[in-house]
Amino acid sequence: MSSADIAARVVKNLESEDFRLLKVFASGLKHHEALTLDQLVSFSKLHVDVVTYRMKRLQGMGLINKGNRGPALLTAGLDAFALKLLAVRNIISGMGKPIGVGKESDVYEAVNERQQELALKFFRIGRISFRQASRKRGFSSKEVENLHHWLLVNVSAAKKEFDVLTRLKSTGMKIPVPVYRSMHCIVMNRVEGIRLPNVKELEHPRLVLRSILANTAIAYKNNVIHSDLSEYNVLVQIKTGEICIIDWPQAVPSNHPNAKSLLRRDVFNIVRFFNKKFSLRINPEDTLNEIINNLQHWTSIAKGLRA
Hints:
By secondary structure, this protein is α+β, with helices and mostly antiparallel strands.
């Protein structure tokens, strides 16, 4: 069972004192790898007996683990806090099945009170470290430090992607529309489509490629380079050919020292894939130069594709 599944199973059973302690852990991530009993009492403003009882509950739920330095938050604990926060703020009313599991994220279906379909993206950078830690009953100091590091990395990655998506959502680009961020979890609109590597045939592959490149040009015009673009970061609807470019946590501004080389890699990756899979003969170098030197042309293409 994944940490998100564990969190979803127990989140409805979290009582106010449980949630308060999870909030203490989550709020203290930036400055504390683990917390002592005295710190928990001080930060939560709960009686020591209440804290002791609640810590046993949270540990029994699989949300925290007791290490040499004191109790530490597990991935499932951060998941549970994020989900509880989303529920309290009426962002979501329920979480469903997984949509996709990748190396660095898990995406789940969700709905809000109006039954609108949403997607929850939990960042899982450092997943192997999480698994190693979760097999143990207690943490060594090194393991606490390692897990704490990756939790912070995931919160930072979620914030970065949410900020990029928020910046690009008004450009008309084909990207997930961000709704809300809760720690290491981003709530987005539900996007339909199949990842390009899983597509067997496309009726108009050249048009699909042009759409991807046009959206890359729009991002570049708005000072954003994906910097990790490949066939694995593009969803396509087979019937319509409509695309959506996903996974933006590694995006960089166009004034980044390596901006041109990162843009080059993005363009070459996607053009080479289409050339190989769909027997196109697109010159990636010429395409890159067109994007850099003729942005207006590509943004006009994008507008035409949206019309």
